[in-house]
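Exercise 7.
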Amino acid sequence: MKRSLPLIALLAVLAACATVRTTQPGVVGVDREQTMIASAAAVNRQAGDAYRQTLQQAQKQGKLNRDPAQVARVRAIADRLIAATRSFRADAPAWQWEVNVLTAKDVNAWCMPGGKIAVYTGLLEKIRPTDDELAAVIGHEIAHALREHGREKAGQAMGVGMAAAIGGALVGSRYGIDPSLGENVLGTVGDLAFMRPNSREMEQEADRIGVELAARAGYDPYAAIGLWEKMRQVSDGGPPQWLSTHPSHATRIGDLKTSADRVAPLYRPGTPRR
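Solution. The predicted structure, written as tokens, is:
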């Protein structure tokens, strides 16, 4: 009987597999089918727990939302992008979205499963993005959540024998939690299996959807091109850690331009498109 347990477990995992399309393709045409094993509820719950603990630690250290003007700006841009998510997922605008600014030196931003967003002051101060460029960053990260890339990676982790880490691929190196936020935060999020980086295919999907979200929210879709050039410059010619799985710079810029050309008719400066 004991010998059959691994087989039973494997069959249970296989039975739980589902091939889905998490989003509408949009004008940019992202329509890849994804294989999901981990449940959305489990992944979102673990992401929410990790997010709360990250904020609590940042709060204790005085590194949470220190500049009201910065926070207001980031949240205003995020709110317009979130409203535009309905074009890809009807349920997304009603998610329990949270948007916060963390004082940390890294050029970084992320959106955990379920809509938990953080933008680092390092990005705001070193890149000095325009509103259009900041929309490109946040839109890219929101796109990962819409496509449920974290859940997809959780299933991949389970598929290679990491079933204990059902929250797969969540924070760790992918989200680049700044060490200055404290060892307790790293201990909390670093053990989650979400530390797997996104694949190039996932990053390309996020680039494309992010550009369309920006255009629909009334932000210049071509701003993404200038943004990634700035990113490359502050990283001494190479991508930041959180963009390390992107395609080559030239390939990415070409793809962003193609996507921006496609969504340009949707763009009305400063006017969100419903």
